[in-house]
Design goal:
This protein is mainly α. Helix 3 runs antiparallel to helix 4, helix 6 packs across helix 7 and helix 11 runs antiparallel to helix 12.
């Protein structure tokens, strides 16, 4: 496994090609990512940071995203989910507007540091459906990578949940957003491909 250091993150972002101000912001974001995601693992047993880096790769390589701020948002999209206490750091280092965008992309029970209750799923869906285009694009890229990574998860309940939510929420949401941008059109196509692939895998 490659060493995940500052240079690796900046290369994944494509930051060496950015103008100076965006490069500086990328370095700050990469340092925060190394700090916030450190010591956390996914249920597959892999370092958590591999996931946001994969989301950035989906955004850049498959959805054609070049806007630095959207890619930085992709890198840190799970920062408040992993560590809600990082909010003050994010505000200080990247600003209140950026952090507000992250809050809008994070489930309320994660922000509040409490167990998920019966009404949280509906609130989370409503929150995602209300996202602006760029934030929604990051969330769909996140879902694309999660679906591709499902086979490595030991949690069969998680797999079933993801596939059900793909069919009854994420695909309709992505389809409705298709006209908003070519990036969202491409995201819908990738999600639909994942849906077909998983449907084929579960057939006897």
């Amino acid at each position: 496994m490659a060493i995940i250091d500052l240079d690796h993150i900046l290369t994944t972002l494509g930051a060496p090609a950015w103008e100076a101000r965006s490069q500086s912001r990328a370095r700050v974001a990469a340092s925060i990512a190394l700090s916030v995601y450190a010591g956390h693992t996914r249920d597959q047993g892999t370092p958590y940071l591999l996931h946001p880096l994969a989301v950035v790769d989906v955004l850049r390589s498959e959805l054609g995203v070049t806007l630095p701020e959207t890619l930085v948002l992709g890198l840190l999209h799970d920062a408040l989910e992993v560590d809600a206490g990082s909010e003050a750091l994010l505000v200080h280092q990247l600003g209140g507007t950026f952090t507000t965008r992250l809050r809008a992309m994070t489930a309320d029970h994660r922000l509040e540091g409490r167990p998920k209750d019966a009404g949280d799923e509906a609130r989370w869906r409503a929150k995602q459906a209300a996202l602006p285009s760029e934030e929604l694009l990051v969330r769909l890229a996140d879902r694309i990578h999660n679906l591709r990574d499902l086979s490595a998860s030991p949690n069969l309940d998680r797999q079933g949940k993801y596939l059900r939510s793909l069919a009854d929420f994420y695909l309709p949401l992505a389809e409705a957003a298709r006209p908003l941008s070519p990036h969202l059109e491409a995201a819908y196509a990738l999600l639909h491909t994942e849906y077909i692939r998983h449907q084929q895998e579960v057939r006897p």
